Amino acid sequence: MFQNLIYVFHVVVCLIIIGLVLVQQGKGANIGASFGQGASGTVFGAAGKANFLARMTKWMVVLFFITSLVMMFNSGKITASKSVIDSLPVQQVPMIGGQTSTTSQPQ
């Protein structure tokens, strides 16, 4: 249950990061001010929106790394590796002189 909750939270954080990055203006977006994309009428003020979105992106990236580390540590506990050689069938093979030996048969 905990693992599924982490997976869902991780995907939600990923989608939020994608949305935040797409909403932010790039460094070369200053040309937009001449076409009506200026700071007039913004909710956050002239520079408040950029700072708010940058801080939100930073904290979402921190959450992304935390959930990634939690998923990594949880996946290491679940999987137990077993050797393929241990699962090979053992067969009795007669030897010269009447003795028998146990060997594994390749498939």
Automatic annotation (TrEMBL):
Membrane topology of the entry: Multi-pass membrane protein
A Pfam entry, by short name: SecG
Name of the molecule in the record: Protein-export membrane protein SecG
Function: Involved in protein export. Participates in an early event of protein translocation.
Coiled coil: none
UniProt entry keywords in alphabetical sequence: Cell membrane, Membrane, Protein transport, Translocation, Transmembrane, Transmembrane helix, Transport
UniProt-listed InterPro entries: SecG
Species of the source: Ignatzschineria larvae DSM 13226
Transmembrane segments: 6-23, 59-76
Cell location: Cell membrane
Major localization listed first in the record, in broad terms: membrane
Source organism phylogeny: Bacteria, Pseudomonadati, Pseudomonadota, Gammaproteobacteria, Cardiobacteriales
Family membership: Belongs to the SecG family.
